[in-house]
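Deliverable D2.4 — example input (structure tokens):
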């Protein structure tokens, strides 16, 4: 089975041709995304992930293959999959024999033992066998009440990690209660310059407790781009190797020490390249992050 390092079928030149955009330092076809440790393990996760793209949801295999090729060519691994996306991404994983190279987050909607197991089996089948990488639930109450069930699934080898995912601030308190009282490997939360609340308590808590953090809504589902539309990226962004507004948001997020990986959703190969490029080069320091916040807030007024 192919591992992450070995999976380099597509050269940077081919990717540039596919997307119309060069990768940063594309002359170095071996350039791979930096990684961060999943706390409590030796496993490394590349810092940029792919969200649940419309291409995956609608079963657009041609576009999905293109997005996943671009992603994997830079060592990307985490793909967030929900509902029909699991079949699309699963088919591509089987074609590429990429179960080990990719890291799939799969939402298991069922809140019962039997239905949950059935759903896990169907994802296993879709991806070509083997344990799931990450079983995610959006039902924090269910996880809190039935932590034992999720832990058992992990102990039995049905999944390697278990986690909870929400995308709104109103869930942060219940997520923190869960993090304080139960064992959870990963949390997925919203965090960005326009939704910075998680950095007050949730992110420091995750860091203290050794819980991996995956960030969603880096662009507030696209609203961020409406805000920066027509605005010139400040010259000082180049000081931390930032060359687009997408990278401006992603680099802000990645500079937080509790963040393990940030999900980026796109159905546009050019945007996929842009987003992956945020993973390379320098990140803003504390002072620069404040400057970034101030600038974005001035647009939001
Ligand atoms: N667990 C949960 O409850 C939950 C909830 C929400 C989200 N999530 C996860 O988090 C992921 C990301 O969050 P999100 O759905 O809020 O999406 P997002 O990544 O914040 O924003 C996606 C939007 O930004 C655009 N975009 C992406 N890259 C761009 C670029 N470089 N330049 C210009 N536009 C760009 C996309 O359009 P194009 O397609 O045209 O690029 C799309 O409209 C989701 O896909 C999902 O996996 C989880």
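Example output (designed residues):
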């Amino acid at each position: 089975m192919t591992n992450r390092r070995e999976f380099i079928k597509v050269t940077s030149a081919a990717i540039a041709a596919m997307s119309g955009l060069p990768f940063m330092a594309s002359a170095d076809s071996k350039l791979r995304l930096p990684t961060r440790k999943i706390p409590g393990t030796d496993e490394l996760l590349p810092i940029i992930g792919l969200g649940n793209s419309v291409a995956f949801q609608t079963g657009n295999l041609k576009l999905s293959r293109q997005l996943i090729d671009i992603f994997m060519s830079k060592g990307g691994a985490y793909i967030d999959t929900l509902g029909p996306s699991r079949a699309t991404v699963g088919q591509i994983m089987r074609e590429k024999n990429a179960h080990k190279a990719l890291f799939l987050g799969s939402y298991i909607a069922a809140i019962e033992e039997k239905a949950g197991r059935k759903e896990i089996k169907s994802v296993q089948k879709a991806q070509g066998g083997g344990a799931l990488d990450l079983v995610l639930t959006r039902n924090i109450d269910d996880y809190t009440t039935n932590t034992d069930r999720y832990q058992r699934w992990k102990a039995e080898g049905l999944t390697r990690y278990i986690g909870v995912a929400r995308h709104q601030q109103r869930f942060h308190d219940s997520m923190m209660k869960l993090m304080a009282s139960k064992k959870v490997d990963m949390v997925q939360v919203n965090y960005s310059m326009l939704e910075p609340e998680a950095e007050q308590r949730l992110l420091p808590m995750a860091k203290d407790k050794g819980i991996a953090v995956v960030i969603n809504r880096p662009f507030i589902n696209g609203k961020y781009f409406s805000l920066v539309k027509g605005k010139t990226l400040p010259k000082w962004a180049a000081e931390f190797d930032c060359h687009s507004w997408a990278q401006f948001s992603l680099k802000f997020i990645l500079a937080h020490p509790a963040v393990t990986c940030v999900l980026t959703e796109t159905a546009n190969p050019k945007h996929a390249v842009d987003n992956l490029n945020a993973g390379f080069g320098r990140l803003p320091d504390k002072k620069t992050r404040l400057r970034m916040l101030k600038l974005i807030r001035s647009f939001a007024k």
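Strands lie at 35-37, 44-46, 48-50, 78-81, 103-107, 132-137, 159-165, 186-190, 212-216, 261-264.
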